[in-house]
Amino acid sequence: MSKMTITANGAELYLERTFTAPRDKVWAAFTDCEHLKHWWGPNGWDLTHCTMDFREGGRWHYCMSGKDENGETMESWGLQVFESISAPERFSGTDVFADKDGNAAPGMPVAQLAMEFVEVEGGTKIIGRTTYSTAEELKAIMEMGVEQGITETWDRLEALLAK
Amino acid sequence: MTAATDTLSLTFAALADPTRRAILERLTRGAATVNELAAPFAMSQPAISKHLKVLEKAGLITRGRQAQARPAELNAQQLELVTRWLEKTRTHWEESFDKLDSYLATLQDTPPDPQTPTPPRRKK
Fold first, then answer.
1. Domain B3-77 listed as CATH 1.10.10.10
2. Judged by CB atoms within 8 Å, which residues 5-24 of A form the interface with B?
3. pTM of the predicted structure, to 2 decimals
C-alpha cells in the first residue's frame, strides 16, 4: 500500500496514490454510488445520500454525515458536475459545497477537479488535481514567512503540504 | 453553508493579493499604524487603508480604536482557520483513500478471470 502524496503547487492541490487494484476497479469505485458508499469520506463520516449521473454534463450529488466534537450530527452536502470523461483514464469537473436540493452554495470557493487513473506495475495510480477558483490562494499562504507567534500554524501547514 | 466556511472564502480572497500578504508579514512583527505600513510600499495611505479594510473584513487583522492612528494587529486565529481547512481537505482524501484501499482489496477476493469467458448468470 503506498501512502498519499499531497502538495500545493500554486493554486493547485496535487495528490497521488497507488492502489494495488486493476484500473477498471478503481475507476468503478469513483463513478458508482454502490462503490462510493463504501469509502467516500473521512473516518467517522458516512455517505448518506448519493445520486450519480456519470456522464459529461451530469452531476454527482452527495451527503456525508458525521459527528462534530460535541457529538452533534453534521451533514456536508457536495455537488460535482462532470465536464469531461474519458473512461477509464480520466474525468474532470467542478466540486462545490451544495445544499440538500443540489443547489451550489453561493459565494463559496469552486474547486476545479481532475482525476487521472494510470495503469502502473501491480496496480493503478490515481493523480488528483484540485484547483481553487481564487487564484493563488494556496500559494499565498505558503509564501508567507514563518514568524514568531504563528510559527506553530505555519509548521503545521508546511507539514500538511509537504507529506 | 456555515459561517466558518463563508469567512474562509473571504480569507482566501484577502490572501490572494501580494500587497496584503506583505502587510500581514509586517504585522507578524507587531502592530503598526497606517503610516508605518505605507512607508515600505510606496503607496498612498488611502490605498493601504483599502487593503486594511479587506484584511479586517476577512478577520485577518483587528484595528485599534484609538482615534487617529488605529494601529492594525494580526489575528493569528484566522490563519489557523485556513490551516485547519487545508488539514480537513487532506484528511478527507487520506482517510477516504485508506478506506478505498481496504474496499478494493475486498473486491479482489472474487476476481473474474479474464482468460475464461464470463460464466452464465446464476438464476436466483
1. yes
2. 6, 13, 15, 17, 19-21
3. 0.65
